[in-house]
Design a protein that fits this description.
The chain is mainly alpha-helical. It has four helices and two strands.
């Protein structure tokens, strides 16, 4: 049975979406994003709950006017930037090459 080239953008997208490379791309993306998102949300909600219910702990001085709550709050920003950097490195190494292959194969079809 011969495969007829898709004629509409929706058909092209459907073919791409069903391809093994696209499924592999989605799996690699999810395997990175989901665990990191869960860990970060747990860390974020722990901070919020500590800020709301553990006032004495959060007010514990560390040095000068800096307390545990301030350090944990700054840690939220550090964590966000670290995760962003980690994702960019991961995407450059693992996701972008697959996406480039998919794009190149489908640009060839369009030509």
């Amino acid at each position: 049975m011969s495969h007829v080239a898709p004629s509409t953008p929706a058909e092209v997208f459907t073919d791409i979406e069903r391809s093994e490379k696209f499924r592999r791309l989605k799996k690699k993306h999810r395997s990175f994003v989901l665990p990191i998102a869960v860990v970060f949300l747990l860390w974020y909600f722990a901070y919020v709950l500590l800020a709301d219910y553990a006032h004495d702990f959060m007010a514990t001085p560390v040095f000068g006017n800096v307390n545990v709550g301030l350090l944990l709050g700054l840690g939220q920003f550090v964590t966000t930037f670290a995760i962003t950097t980690w994702y960019v490195v991961y995407a450059n190494r693992h996701l972008d090459p697959i996406a480039a292959e998919i794009r190149a194969e489908n640009e060839e079809v369009d030509s």
